[in-house]
Structure formats: C-alpha cells, structure tokens
Design goal:
InterPro entries: Cyt_b561_bac/Ni-Hgenase, Di-haem_cyt_TM, Hydrogenase_cytochrome, Ni-dep_Hydgase_cyt-B. Pfam families: Ni_hydr_CYTB. One of its GO terms (molecular function) is iron ion binding. Its main location: membrane. By secondary structure, the chain is mainly alpha-helical. Among the domains are: 68 residues; 90 residues. It is built from nine helices and three strands. Helix 1 packs antiparallel against helix 2 and helix 2 packs across helix 5. The radius of gyration is 21 Å and the shape is elongated.
Length: 233
C-alpha cells in the first residue's frame, strides 16, 4: 500500500498491483510478440527484393530470420522466468495468485460476465484479475508454450550443430507428436494467428475496464499501482 488519494467524496487507497519485474517482463514479452509476428509472416512469405549483387552480402531473409530467432529465445526466457515469478515471488505476484480463488467461484464468473454485457454490477475482485481476465491470460500462457515448443522444433531442424543439435534431439518428440515437420510449421503458423486475434481483444478489454472503472486499470501495468475503495476490477 502506498497511501491514500482524496477523490472529493471518498479516499482511494493506492495498492501495489504489479512488481517492477512483472511490468518489465510484460512489455518485453509484448514487444517480442509483435516482432515475432512481423518477422514470422515475412519468413512465411518474403516480399522484399534486395538489389541484385554479384557479392554474397545481401541476406535480407537471413537477417530477418536471425531477428526472429533472437526474439523467440527472448520470449522463451521471459516466459520461463515469468512463470517462476508467479509461483515464487512472495510480494510482486501475490495479487495474481489471489485471483485463482475467485477464478473457481461460479458466482464471480456469472457476475463478471454480466458486467461485460452491461446487465450487472462488477463484483468485488480479490486479486489482480477477474475470472475472465485470468482465463484469458492462462490461455495466452498455453499459446506461448505451444508456439515456443513448435518454434524450437523448427529451429532444431534447421541448425544441426551446437545449440540446434541439442534442441533438435531434445524436442524431436514435438515433430513426432505433430505428425511431421510440415505439420509443425502449420501449427506454428496457426498459433501465430491466435496471437494476432488475442492482441486487439486484450487491448479492447483493458481499455474498456479502464474507461468504465477508472481506478488504475490500464496504467497499472505501467505504474504498478491500482487505486481501491470498495470496488476492484
């Protein structure tokens, strides 16, 4: 808790919602995903034509693939550490863990859905997320896991020495499970479209919450602070 703000009618208590590391990793992951989507679509369908040259120095596809790989490993590293913070960060992720209690509460689910349909009041939320937000971010985590697994499997089939050799052998089961490398590519591409769909929905819901309940919704992921009285969304 950071203090109180006088709204003119009642006091709003400022609470730390997200730790500094949580916020940093959120934005690093966001920028990585945007970069991966852009470079991934280019790799699937190259549209740049470098100026012809007799010298082997124009490697647009190779450079973009390298950026894609770097961003992919950044996303993997951030996601692993983000999961670690969720379970073991005693203070910074405490509010996120508290959200699970109401995630399994059917009454809170119904009340939250009514709120989004403009037919009911928002229930008091204990934790960082309401049930719809919690399941959305959990689904994002599953998508991230799947896109990283398929991405590593593809990486191991292109680079056959060093790290590529180790990952190729370790994640060969992904290729087998998917029924072949061609299917791995298709699944990886479909998962990319899932991210493309998720992003505008996520932004819309965050902005919607911030406009309807202006107590630090969108800016909480920047400042880390949410203001509370008797209602939290």
């Amino acid at each position: 808790m950071r203090g109180a703000v006088d709204s003119g009618k009642r006091d709003f208590q400022a609470h730390t919602e997200f730790s500094g590391l949580t916020r940093i990793f959120h934005w690093l992951r966001a920028f990585s995903i945007f970069g991966l989507i852009g470079t991934g679509f280019y790799i699937a369908l190259p549209f740049l034509s470098p100026t012809p040259s007799a010298e082997p120095t124009l490697f647009a596809q190779a450079y973009i693939r390298s950026i894609h790989l770097i961003l992919g490993f950044i996303l993997i590293a951030i996601s692993i550490f983000r999961v670690y913070l969720f379970f073991f960060d005693k203070e910074g992720s405490k509010e996120e863990r508290r959200s699970f209690k109401q995630f399994i509460d059917v009454k809170v689910w119904i009340a939250s859905i009514k709120t989004y349909l403009f037919i009911g009041k928002h229930p008091h939320i204990e934790g960082a997320y309401n049930p719809l937000q919690f399941i959305t971010y959990f689904t994002l985590g599953v998508l991230t896991l799947l896109v990283c697994l398929t991405g590593v499997a593809l990486y191991g089939n292109v680079y056959h020495s060093g790290l590529g050799a180790v990952l190729g052998a370790s994640f060969k089961w992904v290729e087998v499970l998917c029924g072949g490398l061609a299917n791995v590519r298709v699944i990886h591409h479909i998962l990319t479209w899932a991210f493309v769909i998720f992003i505008p929905v996520h932004v819309y819901l965050v902005v919607w919450n911030s406009v309807k309940y202006p107590n630090g919704g969108a800016d909480a992921i920047i400042s880390g602070v949410r203001y509370q009285n008797d209602l939290k969304v």
